[in-house]
Amino acid sequence: MNALLERIKKAGGRLEDTIRRLPCSFTVLCLISLCGIYQILSEKETVKLFFSLIVAVFFCFLLEIAYEYGVHKLKVLTPLTAVSATLISYLLLKHYGNIYIYTALAGLSIAAISLIFYVLYAKRENRELFSHLIKSAFIVEIFAGVIMSGISVCLAAFHFLIFHFDEVWKIYGIISILVMGLFNATLFFSYVPKPDEKISVPATYRTIIHKALFYIYLILIAILYLYIFKIIITWKMPVGKLNWFGCFALLFYVFFYLSVDESDGRYQKLFKQHGVYLLLPILAIQLFAIIIRLNAYGLTTARMMSLILITAAVGFMVSQALHIPVARCFLFTALLAILFSCTPFNIYDVPDRVQEKRLKDALIKGGALNNGVLDDQVKMEARYLEDVRSAYEYLRYSDGRKSAFYEEFEKSKIAKALDHYDPQSAEIRSFYYNTDLTNKEIDIASYSKLEMISQDDEHYQQELTPFLLSLDESKTADYQQDGLEYELSDGSKIIFRYISYDYNEDEKSFVSLYFEGLRLGK
C-alpha cells in the first residue's frame, strides 16, 4: 500500500512539474478535454474544433520543447502559435472541410512530431532516448489503464447498488477523457527529458525489446530471404504479397536502429554496424514488386503512402550507412510529411494525375481519343477497354479533385458502358448509392419501431428486388439529393443508407448485393 501511495505521489509530482514546465501545452490539453466533455454532455458535433486543438497541441509542445532546448528565445511565440494554429485550423475545417484540409493538417501534425524528435536528438545522439520514450509510453498506458479500470469498477458498483444513472455512458465517457486523455498525455509529457537530464532504460525492457523482440525480427528477415530465394528458384514473382511484410521489416529496422546499442549483445552490435546491408535485398525486391503493380494498375493513394514510408525508412538506412546524425532523419521525415500532404504532390492528386494519364493512353491506343477529342462511337479492343475501366474505376471513387477531362469522359457513352462492363460477362448491370443519415431529419411521428436492416434479412431482400432493379445508375446524384425510400407491404418504410449490387441480366440473378438502411415500423 505504501509503495502504491509513493508511486501516486511521484506521479502527482511529475504532473505538477509538467504543468510548470509546459503550461501552454497543458492548457491546450485541458481545452481538448473540455471540448470532448462538451460533446458528450450536449451531444453536439465538435469534431472540427477537437481536431484543430489536437493540431495546436503538437505545435505548442514543439515550441515549448524547442524553447527549453535553446532552439529559440521567444517564449511568447508558443501561446501565439497555439492560438493561431487553432483558429486557422478551425476556420479551414469550417469553411473548406474537405479531404485536402484534413490531409494537410494531419501532415503538419506528423511534421510537428518529427520536428519534436529532431529537437530532442539534435543535441544528444543518445540511442537510449527512443527506448526511454517507448518505455515511458508503456508505463503511462498501464498506469492510466489501471486507474481507469479501478474507477470504472467503482462507478459500476455505485450505479448498480446505490443510485442508477440514466445515462451512465456519459459519465464513463467523461472519465475516459480525463484519465486516458488529459492525465495520460500530461504524464507522458513529463517523461520527455530535459536538455541535461540523464535517462536510462531498465534491464527488463532491454531483455524483452532489445533482445527477445529483436531475435523475432531476425526470424522475419530470414523468412523474407527465403521468399527471395523462392522467387529466384521458381522464377515467379507473386506480386501483392511482399509489400506489407517488407514495410514491416523496414519500420522495425527504424525501431531497432533507434533502440538497440552495442551493449545489448553481439548481434545487436553487428546490426548497428551493418544492419542496413541486411535490408538492401529485401528493399530491392520490394521495389521491384511495386514497380510491377504500378505498370499493371498505376499509382494509387495506398501505394503512394507505401512508397512514402519506404522513403522515410531509407532515410534512416542512409543515416546508418553514411554515419549521418539521426536528427536529420527526423527533419527529412518532416519534409516528406509536408511535401506529400500540403503541396500539389499530395497523396490524392499525384495518383489521380497518373491514373488520368493511364486512362488517356488506353483511350488513345484504343482509338477513342484523337488530338484530345473523345470519340464515343469507337469499339475498343478488350485489352484497352480493361485498362480504361481500371483507371476510370479508381478516378471515380478517388477523393481527389476531378479534372475537366474526367468530367467530360464521365458523361461519355464509353463511361456509361463501363458501368455495365465486366471482363467475364458483358451483361452485368451495376448500381451504387451511398448517403449520410447522421444529420438527416427523419419524420417518425407515425411509426413506433426503428431497426437497422441489411441484405441479411432475406424477407426484405425478396420484396425489395423489383425496387432495387428499377434504380437507374445515371440518376444517382438525384437519389443522393432526395434520398431513397421504399414502403413495404406491411406498411413499414425503409430509408436506405447504402446500396451496391451487380446484377447478371442473362441469369437474372445478383452477382453481388449489399444494402443497409433504417426500417420504420408501426
Can you offer a commentary on this structure?
The protein has 522 residues and is of the alpha+beta class. It folds into four domains: 2-190, no CATH class; 203-343; 350-418, no CATH class; 430-521, no CATH class. 67% of the residues lie in helices and 9% in strands. It is built from 18 helices and seven strands. The strands form two sheets. Strands 3, 4, 5, 6 and 7 form a five-stranded antiparallel beta sheet that branches. A hairpin with a 5-residue loop joins strand 5 (485-487) and strand 6. The longest helix is centred in the first third of the chain and has 34 residues, at 128-161. The radius of gyration is 28 Å and the shape is globular. 27% of the residues are buried.
Helices, strands, pairings?
Blueprint: H1 2-21, H2 23-42, H3 47-68, H4 77-96, H5 99-122, H6 128-161, H7 168-190, H8 203-234, H9 242-259, H10 266-297, H11 301-322, H12 327-342, H13 349-365, E1 369-370, E2 373-374, H14 382-397, H15 404-410, H16 413-418, E3 428-434, E4 449-454, H17 458-469, H18 476-482, E5 485-487, E6 493-504, E7 509-521
Antiparallel strand pairs: 1-2, 3-6, 4-7, 5-6, 6-7
Helix pairs in contact: 1-2, 1-7, 2-3, 2-7, 3-4, 3-5, 5-12, 6-7, 8-9, 8-10, 9-10, 9-11, 10-11, 11-12, 13-14
